[in-house]
Amino acid sequence: MRNIPILLDIHTHCLSSGHGTHDTITDMARMAAQKSLQILGISDHGPATPRSAGSSYFRNLHLADKKKFGTELLYGVELNILNAAGDVDLEDELLETLDYAFISMHPPTYSSGTEASNTSAYINAMRHPHVRFLGHPDDGRFPVDYERLLSAAKENHVYPEINNASLMPEAYRVDGLRHSVEILSLCKKMSLPVLLSSDSHGKKHIGDMQYIFPLLEQCDFPPHLIINSSTALLRQILGRSQSVCGQR
Description:
This protein is an alpha/beta fold. It is 28% helix and 17% strand. The strands form two sheets. Strands 1, 3, 4, 5, 6, 7, 8 and 9 form an eight-stranded mixed β-sheet that branches. Strands 2-10 form a two-stranded parallel sheet. The longest helix is centred in the C-terminal third of the chain and has 15 residues. The chain starts with 7 loop residues before the first strand and ends in a 10-residue tail after the last helix.
């Protein structure tokens, strides 16, 4: 499983996320090219994140370069779920100009509720256009019913990520290892593809999935359900293909 090709990494953050990194999109693209990635996605935090870019930044991303150093660039957003109703921090009209969106729960922009209400918040947020991925749903600070959540994700053609940053020794998220195994096990059962993500803040960890590979082996996870090994599968997902789940 360690030999699975990682052709793309689309959950990354440049300096516009305001998380202390000074790396620009050019810096990120140069590193992605050095890692031989075919596609790099920049998905900066939505405006509700303290010190993140405002809506004008996302509005202008359609003007940004589509390729640098031979690597294709996609531009998305990691949306903040704001409440149990599933409201997010960019308007739908603006989301339609981006390539994709993650939906995630972060303090202080979302106050965790019960397992049922957190699950409903994720499911309600799936209705927004161009939401394609569940951002680090492994975080035990925001408990969810994984079977209910992933069933809804499959129905709505939204895909969970397995987040390398949640598995690092210094990770601040709670129970990421245990929950990632549960997600992988359910996705295997449901034939639901997963996205592997570095969640790199800056260029340092772009394409780094080292803590994910042992879990894929542990779960005997099918390679054909790993989005990162097929640019064609990613393109289908970004077009909200009705025939993605379970394809070989």
